[in-house]
UniProtKB/TrEMBL annotation:
A GO term from the CC aspect: nucleus
Gene Ontology MF annotations: DNA-binding transcription activator activity, RNA polymerase II-specific; RNA polymerase II cis-regulatory region sequence-specific DNA binding; zinc ion binding
Entry keyword DNA damage: no
Organism: Python bivittatus
Family: Belongs to the krueppel C2H2-type zinc-finger protein family.
Coiled-coil regions listed in the entry: none
Domain C2H2-type, chain residue ranges per copy: 4-31, 32-59, 60-87, 88-115, 116-143, 144-171, 172-199, 200-227, 228-255, 256-283, 284-311, 312-339, 340-367, 368-395, 396-423
Superkingdom as given in the UniProt entry: Eukaryota
UniProt keyword list: DNA-binding, Metal-binding, Nucleus, Repeat, Transcription, Transcription regulation, Zinc, Zinc-finger
Record localization: Nucleus
Name of the protein this chain belongs to: Zinc finger protein 501-like
InterPro entries listed in its UniProt record: Znf_C2H2_sf, Znf_C2H2_type
Length: 434
């Protein structure tokens, strides 16, 4: 262990005097000290109860899962996980809780009472546990460590949720469709898909959302706020998740691996989207027209075709767009930015898709093959246009060779070729014309 380390929270100090001064924050109003770990307690009974942790004495065992507890009351509370019992009911909103202190803390939401205040930033909280967890933002303390991967957390509840990544446990099940979740909050949010409840409304445009976090994220569309900044390149994001995924561009980390084809992904959303390519699953359905989509963002974007909503506005010309990506691409018209450069010829492009299509000139790759005639194309737009030539009528016919065409310009060019008596070889009729 490093010199001058606090055994209570793991923080290190340069001087012993700094350590002793720091330890007072743990011991204030707590005269009873544990000789094993130097933790302090306000009551002797609490110290005696705590010391059983070191003695590994847990006399009260759960008959369901075998977990042991130092106090019988803790076992009684724990059993409610298995029975689902929630005997403490809120008279204001009918919410039920497994433990009394959870009900008391919840009731303060209705009364507006927040008696626990942070001495550092002044923020107030309805219960002491939440305040203790909040303080760790200032101290940097993360006392709860995962035994599987070593990752540390400020809150025990967050560690418990994290452990489910390793165990695969999903204890929260939807009664409607049977889908399971690792967190209760995710289940509650999911259930709103079935009920259609969207309690969180934007005061600017009237859009409603099932989660408050989604509303806060949406409001940044109006404010332009991007509070999450990359320390490597300075790029900012409206969502913390977007910043985390972006950082992996710098680190090269791709933690999500497809077991079907071995492809790896930096973001979970991209990974889930990719997996549905193998399964064919399209779980997100439009209630207006019944069309189904692979991911929720595609559905949200599609729904704007019905609502006409275009929340992303260009500050230069006031043009609005349904998708943020479309706005970002459009803004490059004003800035002249071309961030995508070909490593072969150094040509730059404003769109990544344009760069990918261009690179096929160098590689000769033509991944888009027509199932009708076998012709291959390097870019998707040419391929889609070509496919349409098999389906659409060809009203224009060349009088010289009999070939049919879709658009007028191609027909005119063919007539001109024959009229000028140039030597050509026509793909359709294989005739040489002089």
């Amino acid at each position: 262990m490093e010199k001058n380390t606090c055994l209570q929270c793991g923080r290190c100090f340069m001087e012993i005097s700094e350590l002793l001064n720091h330890q007072r924050c743990h011991s204030e109003g707590k005269p009873y000290k544990c000789v094993d770990c130097r933790k302090y307690f306000p009551e002797l009974s609490e110290l005696l109860s705590h010391q059983r942790v070191h003695a590994v004495e847990r006399p009260h065992k759960c008959s369901e899962c075998g977990k042991g507890f130092t106090k019988k009351s803790s076992l009684v509370c724990h059993r409610r996980i298995h029975t689902g019992e929630k005997p403490f009911k809120c008279l204001e909103c009918a919410n039920c809780f497994a433990q009394r202190w959870l009900l008391v803390a919840h009731q303060r939401i209705h009364t507006g009472e927040f008696p626990y205040q942070c001495s550092v930033c002044g923020k107030r909280f309805p219960d002491k546990t939440t305040l203790i967890g909040h303080r760790r933002i200032h101290t940097g303390e993360k006392p709860f460590k995962c035994s599987e991967c070593g990752k540390a957390f400020a809150l025990n509840s967050v560690l418990i949720t994290h452990l489910r990544v390793h165990t695969g446990e999903k204890p929260y099940k939807c009664a409607e469709c049977g889908k399971c979740f690792t967190q209760k909050g995710n289940l509650v949010g999911h259930q709103r898909i079935h009920t259609g409840v969207k309690p969180h409304k934007c005061l600017v445009c009237g859009m409603c959302y099932p989660h408050n976090s989604q509303l806060l994220q949406h409001q940044r569309v109006h404010t332009g706020e991007e509070p999450f900044k990359c320390m490597e390149c300075g790029k900012c994001y409206a969502r913390k998740e977007s910043l985390i995924i972006h950082k992996r561009l710098h680190t090269g980390e791709k933690p999500y691996r497809c077991l079907e084809c071995g492809m790896c992904f930096a973001g979970r959303a991209s990974f889930v989207y990719h997996k549905r390519g193998h399964t064919g699953e399209k779980p997100f359905k439009c209630l207006e027209c019944g069309k189904c989509f692979i991911d929720k963002s595609c559905l949200v974007y599609h729904q704007r075709a019905h609502t006409g909503e275009k929340p992303y506005q260009c500050q230069e010309c006031r043009k609005s767009f349904a998708a943020k990506a479309s706005l970002v691409c459009h803004q490059r018209i004003h800035t002249g930015e071309k961030p995508y450069t070909c490593v072969e010829c150094r040509k730059s492009f404003s769109l990544r898709s344009s760069l990918v299509s261009h690179q096929r000139i160098h590689t000769g790759d033509k991944p888009y093959k027509c199932s009708e005639c076998g012709k291959c194309y390097g870019d998707r737009s040419s391929f889609i246009y070509h496919r349409g030539t098999h389906k659409r009528a060809k009203p224009y016919k060349c009088l010289e060779c009999g070939a049919s065409f879709v658009p007028q310009p191609f027909f005119g060019n063919s007539q001109k070729v024959h009229a000028e008596q140039k030597l050509i070889h026509h793909e359709t009729c294989s005739l040489y014309i002089k």
